[in-house]
TrEMBL record:
Residues 40-131, 163-254 form the DUF427 domain. It comes from the Bacteria. Gene3D superfamilies: Domain of unknown function (DUF427). The lineage of its organism: Bacteria, Pseudomonadati, Pseudomonadota, Alphaproteobacteria, Rhodospirillales. This is DUF427 domain-containing protein. InterPro entries: DUF427, DUF427_sf. It holds the Pfam family NTP_transf_9.
Length: 279
């Protein structure tokens, strides 16, 4: 069964929890669907994969993964390594490295040549470690972090509802001009104008993250009293086009502030992957 705090990672379809694909773990699923976009991967200055016939693989508790037909990959650039792994849901994976490369360019590609019967037919496909290659593209747009999930929707809606944020016993934000961000499988996020936030409490952080649906975020710490709350607020200075309404607005981590009130109603503290140390 999928772990509750990881349900936001795969397709947010509760009916999948009732599927019995693996007798030893009911509710755990692995499935694929066509990815009609042109997909390209670059590494070591070369386009190493280019296809319009890819697959997107969904697996419980995992981010979506793009798989490329072997015929769309420049296999002459690779050599098979001795590295192998075993997955109870897919089978044994073989790994490949770029010829003449070392360090981060080793074992960047994998293939399940003989997937187990319960697994989708991915034997003639390969995939790549996202952070071991240089660039990924959907059509001509570079994408970051992981494959975009077609089951995930992001809506950025202006709202006049009053949002109050409290941290360490103090109100640190109060706004009726926010943008509410609704993302499938995730808690509502409240993006607030800078003028409605006590910016004197904020201190720039060196942290930065990337999101395939919003762009690159920068972070701030918040000092209240004698305590510094690290990376508790973030902003998207240059979000991607679909999320332009949140440009330059501040969002506080629901998981870690004391309270968030919306029109006077306290919002429940969510439990997400962010709560467990990753975003």
């Amino acid at each position: 069964m999928r772990k509750p705090h990881l349900r936001g990672r795969g397709p947010d379809l509760p009916v999948l929890d009732q599927v019995t694909q693996y007798d030893f773990e009911p509710g755990y699923v692995v499935f694929t669907q066509p990815a009609p976009k042109r997909l390209r991967v670059k590494a070591a200055g070369e386009v190493i994969a280019d296809t319009t016939d890819g697959l997107i693989l969904f697996e419980s508790d995992h981010l979506p993964v793009y798989y490329f037909p072997c015929r769309s990959v420049r296999m002459e650039l690779f050599e098979r390594s001795d590295h192998q792994t075993s997955c109870p849901y897919k089978g044994k994976a073989s790994y490949y490295s770029l010829k003449g490369q070392a360090g981060d360019d080793t074992n960047i590609m994998w293939r399940y040549e003989a997937p187990i019967p319960a697994c989708p037919a991915i034997g003639d496909y390969v995939s790549f470690y996202w952070d071991r290659v240089d660039h990924w593209f959907e059509e001509d747009e570079e994408i970051f972090v992981h494959a975009r999930d077609p089951y995930r929707r992001v809506d950025c809606l202006p709202s006049s509802r009053r949002v109050q944020v409290f941290l360490a016993g103090e109100e640190i934000a109060d706004s009726v001009n926010g943008v509410f961000l609704f993302e499938t499988g995730q808690p509502t996020r409240y993006y607030l104008p800078q003028e409605d936030v006590r910016r004197e409490l904020l201190h720039p952080s060196d942290s930065a993250t990337q999101c395939p649906y919003k762009g690159q975020a920068s972070y701030c710490h918040a000092r209240v009293g004698n305590k510094m709350h690290d990376d508790i607020v973030w902003t998207y200075p240059k979000p991607i086009e679909e999320a332009t309404r949140i440009k330059g607005l501040y969002c506080f981590a629901n998981e870690f502030v004391d309270r968030i009130l919306v029109d006077g109603v306290e919002q429940p503290r969510p439990v997400t992957g962010f709560s467990h140390g990753y975003s």
